[in-house]
Amino acid sequence: MNSKLSGKTALVTGSSRGIGRATALGLARKGALVAVHYGRDEQAAQQTVDLIEKDGGRAFTVGAELGTPGAIDQLFHQLEAGLREHTGEAVLDILVNNAAATTPGDAPEDVSAEQLDEIFAVNAKAPFLLIQRALGLLPEGGRIVNISSAVTRMAIPSQVVYAMSKGALDQLTLHLARHLAPRRITVNSVLPGATDNGSAAFQMPEIREPMSQLSAFKRLGEPEEIADVVVFLATDQARWITGASLDATGGSLLG
Questions:
Q1: What Pfam families does the database record attribute to this sequence (predicted)?
Q2: Model confidence over 68-113: pLDDT tens digits?
Q3: Burial of 132: CB neighbours in 10 Å, binned 0-12, 13-18, 19+
Q4: Catalytic-labelled residue, pool 15, 16, 148, 189
Q5: DSSP per-residue letters across 55-77
């Protein structure tokens, strides 16, 4: 157990699997107490907690389906109670906005208004509201990391709505980095490329092989490789980085 984040607390949204789970594990290994957020799958979130505790770390779950009415209040009610139970006070040092809704891969003309609203509600509106609410808990020198996407830097028409929502998240990073600098709170985006998040799709050769070719290394990324970047941004070593969009695509954007 590394102690770089000893005494720190963190909330990782969407941390029941994939990049979120790897990030929660990584932060816990550095000594942070981690609030593991889930939208619907409480059992998977508990599995993340179990993995953290087996590794010698500390964690607890918080559940709320982001993008739905009352979700932010629901999440923070649980978060503040959990923080007080484990530390005696409601202080949140690190916020990682990882939870996201994805598009089904439809052509732009086939996307419904309801799909558009849902994706923006989860990917752009919820992170804004989460940060807004977290500012009352974040101390001087806090950390905010937003998980964006490589699709904001390349043209994939079937992912246009997802890319638009993540582009909005990058704008949130940029403007809040300036706004929160007086409090020494850093705000950064991490841009993953094609990453094997354990979903069934990535086990299909017809999907896995072409996606692997996007990277300069000709393979899919692993969740831990993205998580390592996030964890770095959460430490004091990254205190001089803010407003940045870090390419974590394995060279997929080299052209």
A1: adh_short_C2 (PF13561)
A2: 999 999 999 999 999 999 999 999 999 999 999 987 777 899 989 9
A3: exposed
A4: 148
A5: TT-EEEEEE--TTSTTHHHHHHH
User: Three-state SS for 9?
Assistant: strand
Per annotation, catalytic residue among 15, 30, 166, 215: 166
Q: Which tens digit of pLDDT belongs to each residue from 39-60?
A: 999 999 999 999 999 999 999 9
Q: Which of 162, 165, 189, 212 is catalytic?
A: 162
Q: Which of 229, 232, 231, 234 is nearest to 246 (CA)?
A: 229
Cα distance between residue 5 and residue 8, in whole Å:
5
Q: Which of 149, 165, 189, 212 is catalytic?
A: 149
- The domain segmentation of the chain, as residue ranges, is 9-248
Q: Do residues 35 and 97 lie in contact, with contact meaning Cβ atoms separated by under 8 Å?
A: no
25 φ/ψ angles, rounded to the nearest 5 degrees: -65, -45
Model confidence, pTM: 0.96
Dist CA 215 CA 244 (whole Å)? 21
The reply to whether 38 belongs to the active site is no
Strand segments (E) across the chain:
9-12, 33-38, 58-63, 94-97, 143-147, 186-192, 245-248
pLDDT at 239: 97
Structure confidence by residue, pLDDT tens digits, 150-209: 999 999 899 999 999 999 999 999 999 999 999 999 999 999 999 998 777 778 888 899
218 catalytically annotated: no
Q: Is 148 designated active site?
A: yes
Per CATH, the number for 9-248 is 3.40.50.720
